[in-house]
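quick one, 116 residues, struct below
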Amino acid sequence: MIFFSFFFFVFFYFFIIIVIIIIIIIIIIIIIIIIIIIIIIIIIIIIIIIIIIIIIIITITTIIIIIIIIIIIIIITIIIIIIIIIIIIIIIIIIITNVDSIMIINDYGIIIIIIS
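---
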């Protein structure tokens, strides 16, 4: 009887220790799974933020490039208009002054006026 009670006592404590160890292992596994899920969520959030930043940078640079191209086109058209206005003014002056002159455009597009 004493032996049986002692055996039961030892078995009971052994069972309690095994149950505690299993519970601790389950808790550790749950904590590891939670940590892995949190790390995955953080990585996904960081990747999304990086993608958004890259998209913003690309759109800003394309907008800046488009604005620069528009400004260059406007400047070129203004220069062409000014050159045309200068040519028209020179022709009007030549017609008004009634001077016999010859206007020659050489190979480089430079206007040479020969007044006789």
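The longest strand covers residues 101-105.
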